[in-house]
Amino acid sequence: MDVLTQYLSLCWLQNNPLKLPRSVSFLKQNLLFYFVVEFFMQTNMTDDPIDSFIEVTLETLLTFVFIGVLLFLNRMLYAYIQVMTAIIFCANVVGLFIVPVVAWLTVSEDILSYYLLAMLLLWNYVLVTYIFKQVLAVNIPAGMVLSLFYFLITYFGAFALGQLL
């Protein structure tokens, strides 16, 4: 429970991922939850569970590769577990809020649900920017650019690769 509260503070931009505990089991638990939530959302959008499974698998693999390459280039591979856990955990926290909003959006298509979804996606972007800023010791614009590349490569890259398969 202590690990959970320490990582939860990241969602309020209050902790440095490099100072958080390294826990492979916590990463595995978060990865499982992440995969289930992403699969649910992807299946909700496409109505094809096989394509959704492939795309979420590609997205997860691209996340692992992107973080690995980023940390390798900055000679920080020692922090791989903490950074991966931080990225996945923050995505899970935001995902907890996104799932009911997506359900609401699917049922009602209310304009407020679109605004709320946009705010939650912005929160996820801010969290990833904050993590990159803290880990790589870069300024906010550099963190924003890295976050943009992260989202483009993982989400749109997975979509493009999924279309090729």
Provide key terms for this protein.
165 residues, mainly alpha, 6 helices
Question: Would you mind describing this structure in some detail?
Answer:
With 165 residues, the protein is mainly α. The chain contains six helices and no strands.
Task: Please outline what is shown here.
By secondary structure, this protein is mainly α. The chain is built from six helices and no strands.
Give a count of the beta strands, DSSP E runs of length 2 or more. 0
Largest sheet: none
First-to-last CA distance = 40 Å
Shape designation: globular
**What portion of the residues fall into strands of 2 or more residues?**
under 5%
Average of the residue pLDDT scores: 92
Helix content percent band: over 70%
Please give the count of helices. Answer: 6
- SSE run: HHHHHH
Output the radius of gyration: 16 Å
Uncertain parts: none
- Content-based structural category: mainly alpha
Strand and helix layout:
Elements: H1 2-8, H2 24-46, H3 49-73, H4 80-108, H5 111-136, H6 140-164
Helix pairs in contact: 2-3, 2-4, 3-6, 4-5, 5-6
